[in-house]
From TrEMBL:
The lineage of its organism: Bacteria, Pseudomonadati, Pseudomonadota, Alphaproteobacteria, Hyphomicrobiales. It holds the Pfam family SoxG. Gene3D superfamilies: Heterotetrameric sarcosine oxidase, Probable tRNA modification gtpase trme, domain 1. InterPro entries: SoxG, TrmE/GcvT-like. This is Sarcosine oxidase subunit gamma.
């Protein structure tokens, strides 16, 4: 009798064996707080030829969000739409399971690609967050230049990322394969301020 092997997949966070909760760097006050984000649902939506108005109507109906036409993020409940270029958005759900019901039925209106496993995601805040991010982010993150709700596709330490601001915190999405490199840069950039890692 021939034995057959069964293959099983175990989902792992992009931060597994890379980052963990704790505190490092300067003692005393905490200047930067990093929240490792787990379980997000992330899909890209690219409008099919002439499908912009129909896609916008479908998204308004399904999640109550008008797709931003400029580099902004809009949120409703546990979902958000982040501008990712002309006629292109990232749909982000706080829970991976909330993504598929939104994406179903959109394929006639857009190229839809679930990329939930392709991103390493974190949120960065604290009183020294801008000073820490300035060590690698090639943008002016002052509120007058990068206000609440702003989104950018940029590079951090020569790694392509998506970054947006909500309130006083910044969410950063990096390719999963670059999680170790992003963490090396981030931990070096935040250490002088004292960094608390959650998640």
């Amino acid at each position: 009798m021939v034995e057959t092997a069964s293959v099983g997949w175990t989902r792992r966070s992009a931060w597994a064996d890379v980052a963990k909760a704790g505190r490092f760097g300067a003692q005393g006050t905490t200047g930067v707080v990093v929240e490792l984000l787990y379980g997000l649902g992330i899909a890209t939506l690219i409008v099919a030829d002439g499908g912009g108005p129909a896609l916008a109507a479908a998204l308004r109906d399904r999640i109550g969000i008008e797709p931003p036409l400029t580099p902004l993020i809009r949120r409703s409940g546990g979902r958000a739409l982040a501008w990712a270029g002309p006629d292109r958005w990232m749909l982000v759900a706080d829970r991976r399971d909330d993504l598929d019901p939104v994406c179903e039925g959109l394929h006639a209106l857009a190229a839809v690609s679930n990329q939930s496993d392709g991103w390493a995601s974190l949120q960065i805040g604290g009183p020294d967050v801008r000073r820490a991010l300035a060590k690698g982010v090639m943008l002016d993150l002052h509120p007058s230049a990068f206000p609440d709700g702003a989104v950018a596709l940029t590079a951090v330490s020569h790694i392509n990322v998506v970054i947006w601001r909500e309130g006083d915190a910044f969410t950063l999405l990096a390719p999963r394969s670059m999680a170790g490199s992003i963490w090396s840069w981030l931990s070096a950039s935040t250490a002088e301020f004292g960094c608390e890692v959650r998640g």
